[in-house]
């Protein structure tokens, strides 16, 4: 087996074992309650997103307002990442937490309006109905701007590059700086899980749900979600970390109007198309 | 147990959580804890709305309130200019007036809820309450909504601009 593949397979196992055995480190006067809520909250958040996803023709929880619930859940990342920085009662973590909110303001509004486009086109907030409405043409084809804004939002909420300044190396890890042991493991696993959950929700929203030849629907959902998660991580890690104070302006002045135009086009197609 | 009983139990449990978390806002000694106690209270109210069959309203209350509390925490800490994790501080001031106002408001609203003759239900709820809500707020009131939104945004922007001598986005590269 080539070294690269072997290390790719072994590193997560070794890192998990290392963190499980690591002696927990504490900071002075840490707000342990809020810190623990934050570090253990990201993973359940991703699970709650995943239960909304329709696997083929049915979801674990079929919700008539699934799109709004996804939005509500991704806003919890605001609270949790800020609390992660706050709880440690340490400078780098706190600066990281504030950086996250500055970035979140930038990515969340385009994300919210991006979620509107598939809902308007399918005339439903139900992820299952939205997936079924794409039997002719996947929404990603005629809503590329909404899809891009959505992908940026997923990278933002999982604190990944280019929106990873909250956990930046220039801050010694920012919100992650003081985390150790199981807490660190939960946060890192939660970040990956949020990336995967965001990619999985994109499948019914933009990528045709379980539609595909030969294979069963649920397998297509898994394949598409996996491919998008991999693509997001690969593209993101090749981009430089954006300065948090420079993100808001292009996000609101350029991206947000573009997404609104996208919504307008979709609404026009639905009304006159 | 029947699903109805479970729903009733969940309803009352969420009501109790909402009230206790609301009370915790005044009891805790840290800005962050007070803020997120309030967020927990609002989330419990959102779940109560869900249990009343208002799926959209419940989800939106959770969405808006968590977002608002995340931003409010920033403002509270910013204007206090301190680190409450290191320096615990009381979340209340003007005890007597506040308690008097609180008890008075509770008695007034409670008396209203008990004494007002509630109307009987006429007709049945719409099968799609979310669509009915959208129709009610946006259908005939579209003009009001369209007019109010820019006024609200302008108010927020003007408030921030007036309170800010020189912002961090003012990089000196504009005339």
From TrEMBL, chain A:
The chain crosses the membrane at residues 33-55, 75-95, 100-121, 136-155, 192-211, 217-239, 251-272. The keyword Glycoprotein does not apply. Coiled coil: none annotated. It holds the Pfam family NADHdh. It is found in: Cell membrane; Membrane. One of its GO terms (cellular component) is plasma membrane. One of its GO terms (biological process) is aerobic respiration. GO terms for molecular function: NADH dehydrogenase activity. The keyword Ubl conjugation does not apply. Keywords: Membrane, NAD, Transmembrane, Transmembrane helix. It is a multi-pass membrane protein. Belongs to the complex I subunit 1 family. This is NADH-quinone oxidoreductase subunit H. It comes from Nocardioides donggukensis.
UniProtKB/TrEMBL annotation, chain B:
It is found in: Cell membrane. GO terms for cellular component: plasma membrane. The keyword Plastid does not apply. Its EC number is 7.1.1.-. GO terms for molecular function: NADH dehydrogenase (ubiquinone) activity; quinone binding. Pfam families: Oxidored_q3. Keywords: Cell membrane, Membrane, NAD, Quinone, Transmembrane, Transmembrane helix. InterPro entries: NADH_UbQ/plastoQ_OxRdtase_su6, Nuo/plastoQ_OxRdtase_6_NuoJ. The keyword Transferase does not apply. It is an enzyme of class 7 (translocase). The chain crosses the membrane at residues 6-28, 35-53, 59-78, 98-118, 138-164. It comes from the Bacteria. It catalyses: a quinone + NADH + 5 H(+)(in) = a quinol + NAD(+) + 4 H(+)(out). NDH-1 shuttles electrons from NADH, via FMN and iron-sulfur (Fe-S) centers, to quinones in the respiratory chain. Couples the redox reaction to proton translocation (for every two electrons transferred, four hydrogen ions are translocated across the cytoplasmic membrane), and thus conserves the redox energy in a proton gradient. Belongs to the complex I subunit 6 family. This is NADH-quinone oxidoreductase subunit J. It comes from Nocardioides donggukensis.
């Amino acid at each position: 087996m080539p070294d690269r593949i072997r290390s790719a397979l072994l590193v997560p196992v070794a890192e998990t074992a290392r963190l499980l055995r690591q002696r927990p480190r504490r900071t002075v006067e840490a707000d342990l309650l809020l810190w623990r809520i934050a570090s253990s909250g990201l993973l359940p958040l991703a699970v709650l997103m995943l239960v909304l996803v329709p696997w083929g023709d049915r979801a674990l929880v079929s919700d008539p307002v699934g799109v709004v619930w996804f939005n509500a859940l991704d806003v919890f990342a605001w609270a949790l990442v800020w609390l992660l920085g706050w709880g440690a009662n340490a400078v780098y973590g706190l600066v990281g937490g504030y950086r996250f909110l500055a970035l979140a303001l930038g990515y969340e509004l385009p994300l919210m309006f991006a979620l509107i486009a598939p809902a308007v086109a399918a005339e439903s907030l139900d992820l299952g109905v939205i997936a079924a409405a794409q039997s002719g043409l996947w929404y990603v084809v005629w809503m590329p701007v909404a899809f891009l804004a959505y992908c940026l939002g997923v990278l933002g909420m999982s604190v990944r590059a280019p929106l990873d300044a909250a956990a930046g190396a220039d801050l010694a890890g920012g919100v992650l700086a003081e985390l150790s042991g199981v807490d660190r493991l939960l946060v890192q696993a939660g970040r990956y899980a949020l990336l995967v959950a965001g990619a999985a929700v994109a499948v019914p929203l933009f990528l045709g749900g379980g539609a595909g030849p030969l294979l069963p629907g649920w397998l297509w959902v898994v394949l598409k979600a996996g491919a998008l998660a991999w693509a997001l991580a690969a593209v993101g890690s090749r981009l430089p970390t954006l300065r948090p104070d420079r993100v808001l302006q292009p996000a609101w002045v350029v991206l947000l109007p573009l997404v609104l135009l996208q919504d307008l086009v979709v609404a026009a197609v639905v009304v006159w198309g | 147990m029947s699903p109805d009983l479970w729903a009733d139990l969940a309803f009352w449990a969420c009501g109790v959580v909402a009230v206790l978390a609301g009370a915790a806002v005044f009891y805790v000694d840290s800005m962050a804890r007070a803020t997120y106690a309030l967020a927990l209270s609002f989330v419990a109210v959102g779940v109560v709305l869900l249990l009343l069959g208002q799926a959209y309203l419940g989800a939106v209350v959770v969405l808006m309130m968590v977002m608002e509390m995340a931003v409010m925490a920033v403002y509270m800490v910013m204007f206090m200019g301190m680190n409450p994790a290191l320096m615990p501080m009381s979340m209340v001031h003007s005890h007597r007036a506040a308690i008097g106002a609180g008890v008075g408001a509770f008695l007034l609203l409670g008396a209203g809820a008990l004494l007002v003759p509630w109307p009987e239900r006429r007709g049945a709820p719409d099968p799609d309450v979310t669509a009915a809500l959208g129709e009610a707020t946006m259908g005939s009131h579209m003009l009001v909504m369209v007019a109010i939104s820019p006024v609200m945004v302008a108010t927020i922007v003007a408030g921030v601009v007036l309170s800010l001598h020189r912002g961090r986005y003012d990089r000196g590269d504009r005339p």
